[in-house]
Specification:
binds iron/sulfur cluster; alpha/beta; eight-stranded mixed β-sheet
Length: 288
C-alpha cells in the first residue's frame, strides 16, 4: 500500500516560505495514502496560480491546465476512466473568477471527484491583486482605496447550486484538512473543499492569526447536523462563511455517472477505439 512519501515526487515546491499551500499538499498526500489510493490510480489536475503548481508536486498522474479550466479536464478524466481517483486543485482566483462558470456546473453535475480550492483572498502568483474572495475595503495593487465589490459567498452559493458535499478547512489544521479530503474522496459525487490557505507574502490582513481568531469549527457547535441543508445555510450565513468542518453532505447522493444511462459498461480509457478502414471511410464521406 502506498504511503504518504510515495506521493512525493521529490520536486521542491517553489512557494514562499510559510505559504499555506505546503500544509494542503501534505494533507492531500496523507489523505490519498490513508484511503488506499495508489499513485497510478490518482489524477491531480490544477489550474493557474500558486496553487496551480499542485499537479507538479504529486507523484501521480498530473495535468496542469489553463486558467480556470481544471474542472473540465478533471471531469473528463473521471468520465473516461472511472477507476481513477480524481482531485482538482486551484485557488480562489482560478475557481471563483474565471473558472466560476465551471465550478457552478461541476457542482450541480455531481461527477464523482474532489475539488480543493486554496482560498487566500488574493491573487498571489501575479503579485497581489483583488480576488473574488477579497473582503470589502481590502487594499491591493488593483484596489488602492479598498475593494468596493462584495466577496462571493462560496459556501452558500455551492449549497444553492445543489452541492452534495461542502467542507471547509484551514491550512493550520492538518488533521482536520486530511479528514475532510478523505471524506471528500469517499463521497459519491462532487465534493467541494474550500481551504483557507494564507498568502504570507501579499495578504497581510487575512493571516494565520486572523483566521485563527475568526474561524469556528462546526463540531464545536452543539448538535450540528451536516445532513441538513437548512442548518448548513443558517450556520454559513450566521458565521459569515467563517466556519470549518464538514458543512453539508447528502449521503444519498447519486452521481452523474449513475444517472447517465448511456454510460458505457467499460471505461472509455480501456475501450478499443480503433476504427476499421471502412468505418473511417464512412466518417470521412460524411464531410463531402
Ligand atoms: Fe503562497 Fe502567496 Fe507566495 Fe503564492 S505568493 S506562494 S500564495 S505565499
Amino acid at each position: 500500500m502506498a504511503t504518504q512519501k510515495d506521493f512525493d515526487n521529490q520536486i521542491k515546491p517553489n512557494w514562499c516560505p510559510g505559504c499555506g499551500d505546503y500544509a494542503v499538499l501534505n494533507a492531500l498526500r496523507r489523505a490519498v495514502s490513508d484511503q488506499g489510493v495508489e499513485p497510478h490510480n490518482l489524477a491531480v489536475v490544477s489550474g493557474i496560480g500558486c496553487s496551480g503548481r499542485f499537479s507538479g508536486y504529486m507523484y501521480a498522474y498530473g495535468f496542469h491546465s489553463v486558467h480556470g479550466r481544471a474542472l473540465p479536464v478533471a471531469q473528463g478524466i473521471k468520465l473516461a476512466n472511472r477507476d481513477v481517483t480524481v482531485v482538482a486543485c486551484g485557488g480562489d482566483g482560478d475557481g471563483y473568477a474565471i473558472g466560476m462558470g465551471h465550478t457552478i456546473h461541476a457542482i450541480r453535475r455531481n461527477i464523482d471527484m474532489t475539488y480543493i480550492v486554496m482560498d487566500n483572498h488574493i491573487y498571489g502568483l501575479t503579485k497581489g491583486q483583488v480576488s473574488p474572495r477579497s473582503d470589502l475595503g481590502f487594499k491591493t495593487k488593483t484596489s488602492p482605496s479598498g475593494s468596493i465589490e462584495t466577496p462571493v459567498s462560496v459556501l452558500s452559493m455551492a449549497l444553492a447550486a445543489g452541492a452534495t458535499f461542502i467542507a471547509q478547512g484551514f491550512s493550520r489544521d492538518l488533521e482536520q484538512m486530511t479528514a475532510l479530503i478523505e471524506q471528500g474522496i469517499q463521497h459519491n459525487g462532487f465534493s467541494l473543499i474550500n481551504i483557507f490557505s494564507p498568502c504570507v507574502t501579499f495578504n497581510q490582513v487575512n493571516t494565520y492569526e486572523w483566521f485563527s481568531e475568526h474561524l469556528t469549527r462546526v463540531d464545536s457547535l452543539g448538535g450540528y447536523d451536516p445532513g441538513s441543508r437548512a442548518a448548513a445555510m443558517e450556520t454559513i450565513m450566521t458565521h459569515d462563511g467563517l466556519v470549518t468542518g464538514l458543512l453539508y453532505q447528502d449521503t444519498s447522493s447519486v452521481s452523474y455517472q449513475q444517472r447517465l444511462q448511456e454510460y458505457a459498461k467499460e471505461p472509455l480509457a480501456l475501450a478499443d477505439l480503433e476504427l476499421s478502414q471502412s468505418e473511417f471511410d464512412r466518417l470521412i464521406a460524411g464531410f463531402y
